What does this fold into?
Amino acid sequence: MTASDKTLTADKPRLTPKPGTWLGIPPFPEAVKTELQLSQQRKNLSHATHVIREKRVLRASEVENWEELRTAAEQIKDRVGRHLDKYLVQAEEAMTAAGVTVHWARDGEEANRIVSDIAKAKQIEEIVKIKSMVTQETDLNEHLEAEGIAAWETDLAELIVQLGHDLPSHILVPAIHRNRTEVRDIFTEEMGRYGAPAPEGLSNEPTELTNAARAHLREKFLRAKMAVSGGNFIVAETGTLVIVESEGNGRMCLTLPETLVSVVGIEKIVPTLDDLEVFLKLLPRSSTGERMNPYTSMWTGVRPGDGPQDLHVVLLDNGRSDVLADPVGRAALRCIRCSACLNICPVYERAGGHAYGSPYPGPIGAILNPQLRGLDSKVDQALPFASTLCGACNEVCPVKIPFTDILVHLRNKVVEHKTAKRPTIEQGLMKSTTWAMSSGSHLEKVHWGSRMAGRVFRERWLGPMPMPLASRWLQARDAEPPPSETFRAWWRTHREGK
It folds into this structure.
């Protein structure tokens, strides 16, 4: 089941991308105009983000060495980045020794093909999935559907998004833009088409909605022969995979199916179990405002008679090597997908996640998407500008990503990319200014021209500037004429020789 332009909300029309993908969503400045009209979505986002960030403040304040933990996480991630080749090989060797089949994928297409080939080799027609940002990034569900394989999301929020023919709008809570009434309507209309229907008279009470989802998913869990997950961390020294979650659906996917395929970005490595401890303290407090995740699953290879007996890990690059090559932008790879930056961002709170045109919205999306996908698309060119540079994201990030520094860096790269072949008028003016300021004789020539212009326009206002000097700012303002006497001329008359 893929996303479509169908909407189940009484609010104004949402963005309508090409079914199943983010293709078709316009650049942020255009997309946000549509999203800002969704008053109910803005209310949902404002309520949810405020609740989560207030809980984060409370839980962080309970940890005396919170800032030291953030610094430790930053340093661990930077060390991984400097020696990523070594840690990846170490992780592969450890996982292989534990009975895991390790695959390497250059891009999303290759990763998707690996997953579908495993399923087809076992004649599997449906799989269950744990919430995974990286498989959203690669459009795995849509690829599997094209191959005749149904992929069922089991995370409650992802289930809401999938049944609603929608797209996720938040890293942690994909259906954050939906309220309980909308969820009830989605369950009532859609559940019966893909499995156990919602009970008659379903209300919008959270308990009833949860029970409806549990009944709908239970039959899928019990008959599934294969599951697909992402991974929050891979411990290089032991080959241990780690997934944290809040509902227990992940634990079901990790224990019941015979085959488990985990698609994991190459940046998710941590060197040792001791290093993992740092992140397990930071992640739940930064994401859900909890002291610890209700479910933290760790598995190291195959155990006869216990859990899946055929384990696969797909290590995905998909542009991460390009990010690592940028000395400034590589800090984005520290991200542990906690969503703290989204919950504090005033732009995200009002614009919503869909305006960013990617599974990664908010500040992390603004710095990660353009680096992963490149700057050829207008969507990615616009994202570094989808920020006020207020710096709130810098303050809450558990791994100290310098968002504002990277945003400014990417803005510069966007301008360079756009003007590489077609220099702008502004660039021409700046080059002229550079020439004028490079020597005293050049500046004197400019002063001479200014003096002549001042004499021509003496006692007059220039008024709105003509093309090509016109701009919105100047069209609304009158420009004064240049002075008829330059500073150099004044100096010669009044000061020289004194």
